[in-house]
Request: fold
Amino acid sequence: MYILDDEAKDLLATVKEFCEKEVKEQCKEFDVSGEWAEEMYAKAGEMGLNAIEVPEEYGGIGISKITYAALYEEMAKADAGFFTTMAVTNLALKPLIIGGRKDLAQKAADILIGGGYGAFCLTEPMAGSDASNNKTVAVKDGDEYVLNGRKCFITNGGIADFYIVTAMTDKSKGVKGMSAFYVEKGTPGLSVGNEENKMGIRTSNTTDVVFEDMRIPASALIGNEGDGFKIAMQTLDMARAVMGIGAVGVAQRCIDEAVAYSKQRITFGQPIGKFQAIQFMIADMEIKTETARQMSLHALQLQEEGLPYGKESAIAKCYAGDIAVEVALDAIQILGGYGYSREYPVEKLLRDAKIFQIYEGTNQIQRTVISRAVMGKF
Ligand code: CAA
Reply:
């Protein structure tokens, strides 16, 4: 449950209506085809959903983190791919704010407010969990950098208007030789590679992004040379709490579908929801989902208050991702044979839920982050 003021409740009602009537319905088909839902995304952009995290000082609506969490949950309940597109677009603004580049943050914010998209290009074929093992290089040439390399599994890779790109400016320094850059769509040398044909979140766009002698101005460097890894890690620390909320949205939808089904499905002369076996399953699904929701909101509240939140964000993302899969499996079990059928929505929810254990750091990586926060790195 969310504690929201009247203004936030009104905003939530508008977003909920759009998500339920349009996103949820249309994404059933786009999940099958894997096509980009052009009109639906255009409408979402007009409604400002691409920019819900943009702070007021950059022209955003400046809503609280708890309020945007409530909006994200509605998006994820309707379709996790839609949520992913929006959440990662907003994520891409964070490195610019973290890196103190108000000028570039303003440019990016204007793009998001105008309904555009951002992408965060950290991952590479040999640098997934081992994020510091970037092979992309950025070589300084006068007042420019020249980038060469390939990123993979990039959310919004094929549709982004701007990209945050990590690259090695000095390989000999290891993680301290990684830098972060701001790159706009259309930069010569930037191209979009293979698009992934994914198991779930099929309404989001995931591609390789390739740099071939791509020249960008030296002013595109975010922070100083060597700051890239820390900026990326700080970005992920912030963003993982939002991913927790995304997973909660999927889990909540599973509960909603399972409850509706269990009230109308008759066996042995009564709705299956009258059986304690089903009631206790629903109760356990609710315990897990509400716990994950509150953990994610707690991590966001810590951010709001300027308190440390890295461990809490990792717990939120990890726990919520794990329970979303468990809850989706339970929803399938409650629907029985129908749950296993593509005619009913819960098999999609399981496919969508799985990604939350993988992206923005696998749940094994979250456990590494959590154990290091508890035990220290030794
Ligand atoms: N904040 C600030 N600094 C940090 C940090 C953090 N959270 N984590 C690490 N650092 C700093 C360390 O302090 C260290 O610097 P010093 O030597 O000055 O102290 C430096 O960075 C190196 O740190 P580590 O030695 O801990 O680095 P590591 O190589 O062991 O890796 C890791 C740590 C946590 C495993 C990291 O590699 C990681 O998070 N991997 C997962 C990557 C990931 O989440 N990828 C997701 C891609 S984005 C995505 O999915 C978005 C999307 O499109 C959906």
Observations:
- Residues 88, 120, 122-123, 129, 131-132, 155, 175, 229-230, 233-234, 236-237, 310, 359-361, 365, 368-369, 377 surround acetoacetyl-coenzyme A (CB under 6 Å).
- The mean pLDDT is 97.
